[in-house]
Design goal:
four-stranded antiparallel sheet, OB fold (Dihydrolipoamide Acetyltransferase, E2P), single chain, alpha+beta, Chloramphenicol Acetyltransferase, 18 strands, 3 domains
């Protein structure tokens, strides 16, 4: 009896998905939990795996098509695999005198190797000529992540890196075995030639563009700035870093301090934790803080839910998990749905100052930036301090300028005197 393969149930905010690439062709055998197809949504890439072993008997949707929630994609015939694996019947009870020689071992198929790599890891391995069999896997189910490939590249001797071809190594070629053989290399483009290429927007990039334009067209966005002395937090982190990691099993970073400071400020100024719906202001009694992180597909904002109830260790653990899963393409739709306030740290990329754009329908977003030694005046003397510029963009329709300024000052005071976070003052 055939088993239907359907589109996973999509969230209400995601109307449809785009079929990226079939990993199997009709008539090919599939193993249970083997990756069959990738679906791209506005927020994440969903991987659809085989629920049973068998043969992919029918495919109803092709690469590039748009599909809806629970729409039929394909069918698997589990009996076909069983019959193919069954030994042939013999006419007599006497076994043959000489057993047949064993068949020579064959290299793994493209799909078997491909299922061991995340999409980002597969692309990087092909580009860098990395043999997946030489990479130590740390992902779930023995899967190779992009971080695993990067770690392998760092450990590879320089002479091996120089000798590696620009495309896939022999064993990693099985990952792209289903693709046509590329044509012979063409001569280098003459100096001064002006080439162009066109690529369609990904679903995620198109959605980002749509939301950013929506924010600028529907909200009255203003930005207020301040600067914060990171010295006290840096000293506290240095003092307790090793003990914190030994106790909680996670590194102590700066994002937990800013998340706790933001929660304290959101409680003091509830309009910044609210949004406008028609002619109504919707207030939240909880703080779901979105943390913007980079991924191979673009910027994503997973949500730290009920941040007001979490400890420093719990916040750091969630943020670390989000960062790893974003790099590996493993974030789910639920991870990025909702949110009442957002924090974006452009400082990790070297940004000194920026004006972040709201994440609709939220009313504000906090922008962190690069920490630099700058001269400041303290008690009449000029001293060097590790300073960071902070930016708060807010919707002036719901947030008054004075509230926005005091909100940012509250965060500044909490970072410059971390004891305030413990005492909630």
């Amino acid at each position: 009896m055939s088993v239907d393969i359907k589109v996973p149930v999509l969230a209400e905010s995601i109307p449809d998905a785009t079929l990226l690439e079939w990993k199997k062709k009709p008539g090919e055998a599939v193993a249970r939990d083997e990756l069959l197809i990738e679906l791209e949504t506005d927020k994440v890439v969903l991987e659809v795996s085989a629920p049973v072993a068998g043969v992919l008997s029918e495919v109803f949707k092709q690469n590039g098509e748009t599909v809806l929630s629970e729409e039929l994609l394909a069918r698997i015939d589990p009996d076909a695999a069983a019959s193919a694996a069954a030994p042939p019947e013999t006419s007599g009870a006497t076994p043959p005198a000489t057993p047949p020689p064993p068949e020579p071992s064959s290299p793994p198929t493209a799909s078997a190797s491909a299922t061991l790599l995340s999409p980002a890891a597969r692309k990087l391995a092909v580009e860098q000529g990395v043999d997946p069999s030489q990479v130590t896997a740390t992902g779930r189910g023995g899967r190779i992540t992009k971080g695993d490939v990067l770690a392998h590249l760092e450990q590879r001797p320089p002479e091996a890196a120089a000798a590696a071809p620009p495309t896939a190594a022999p064993s990693s070629a099985v990952v792209t075995a289903a693709k046509p053989t590329p044509p012979p290399a063409t001569p280098a483009t003459p100096s001064g030639a002006r080439g162009e290429r066109r690529e369609p927007l990904s679903r995620l990039r198109a959605r980002i563009a749509e939301r950013l334009v929506e924010a600028q067209q529907t909200a009255a966005i203003l930005t207020t700035f301040n600067e914060v002395n990171m010295g006290p937090v840096m000293a506290l982190r240095k003092r307790y870093r090793d003990q914190f990691e030994e106790t909680h099993g996670v590194r102590l970073g700066f994002m937990s301090f800013f998340t706790k400071a933001a929660v304290q400020a959101l409680r003091r100024f509830p309009s910044i934790n609210a949004y406008i719906e028609n002619r109504t202001i919707v207030y939240h009694d909880y703080c779901d803080v979105g943390i913007a992180v980079g991924s191979p597909r673009g910027l994503v904002v997973p949500i730290v839910r009920n941040a007001e109830t979490l400890s420093f260790a719990q916040i750091e653990r969630q943020i670390g998990d989000f960062g790893k899963r974003a790099r590996d393409g493993q974030l789910t739709i639920d991870d990025m749905s909702g949110g009442t306030f957002t924090i974006s740290n452009g400082g990790v990329f070297g940004s000194l100052l920026s004006t972040p754009i709201l994440n609709p329908p939220q009313s504000a977003i906090l922008g962190m930036h690069k920490t630099e030694q700058r001269p400041v005046v303290e008690d009449g003397a000029i001293v060097a301090r590790p300073m960071m510029y902070l930016a708060l963009s807010y919707d002036h329709r719901i947030v008054d300028g004075s509230e926005a300024v005091r909100f940012l000052v509250t965060i500044k005071e909490a970072i410059e005197d971390p004891a305030r976070l413990l005492l909630e003052v």
